[in-house]
Amino acid sequence: MTEVYDINGASKESIELPKLFKEQVREDLIRRAVLAEETLKLQPQGHFVLAGMNTTARYYGAMNEYRAGRHTGRAIRPRQKLGGGRQGDVRRIPSAVKGKRAHPHKIEKTLLEYINKKEYQKAIRSAIAATAEPRFFKNKKVEAKMPIIVSDDIQSIKKTADVVKLLEKLKLGADLEKSKKPQLRKGLRRLANRRHFRKSALIIVNEDKGIVKAARNIAGVDVCTLDSIRAKLLAPGGVPGRITIWSKSAVNNVEKKIAELSLIRNGK
Question: What's the pTM?
Answer without folding.
Answer: 0.80
